[in-house]
Amino acid sequence: MAETLRRVLRLLNLLQSRPVWTGTELAAELGVTTRSVRRDVQRLRDLGYPVSAEQGVGGGYLLAAGRALPPLLLDDDEAIAVAVGLRLATGGSVGGVGEAAVRAMAKLDQVLPSRLRGSVDAVVQSTVSLDGSRDVAETVSAETLVDVARAIRTPERIVFAYAKAYGAESDLAERRAEPYRLVSAGRRWYLMAYDVDREDWRTFRLDRMGPVRRTGWRFPAREAPDPVEFVGKAISQRPYPAVTKIRIEAPAETVRARVPAAAATIEPDGPDACVLTAGASSSDFVAFHVARLGLPARILESVGAGVDLQRLGRQLLDMAGERPGDAGGQFAPPSP
To answer: What is the pTM of this model?
Structure first.
């Protein structure tokens, strides 16, 4: 039985290596008869692999596209390439790919041979991105992503050291949490988890987390808030002294396309308007950036440091070298 299984896997590897094989070629490669090849092909079909047989000149066996994705066999080089690609994809800018990459990376890491891990680490560590917008200090290790993702899937309680937002690097506190979801916002990763000691839901930035220890302690499912809404509010409002609500005369999707998810929460207010809620050091800061969108808007509420639009307007006019009453607030064209 073991020999048959090895032969079937070898057959699968051959079918993946090139488009078409004749029965005679496969029999020679496997050291069996063409009758055995036909039986092994049927075994693959029974396992869900769409192996087709085409008659005539140029025909033979080929691995076709199916309705479901069957397991794939990867050699060492292919496994390294996939693992490296998944790690790099977690920091990419293609919408939705980062989350899928983390799930796939957790599955691959579970079965990746230890002899290949060093090669994967070497390639990733020697690769840099042309996009310099990401601070090295904010980089999340692949090990942290994988450990958290696997703990979510189990699910099991985790323990980790967590750095405060404005504390020293050595200012760490141990946290015990029941992980629920990973959420990506721009180029940052956040964990939504139930904080065991604080007995409440919390948001953790992964780049501030120390090594994650999986305890093996299983926990029952809790009623949880929506991860996207919860994390969105946590990172765009709660850390700031001033929170401002502004109604914008534009559909929510239009505004979301122009405002980073980590900067504000945006809720529809009818089909042609939305309400933006954002936190900052002062409401003037939020008003200024909303004004830059060039869309009709009105402040609904400001909590904390108040907004002084007249002062802000005068300051902007002064910066432009203009005074109230100038024609349209436009720069005058140079004299010919």
So the answer is: 0.63
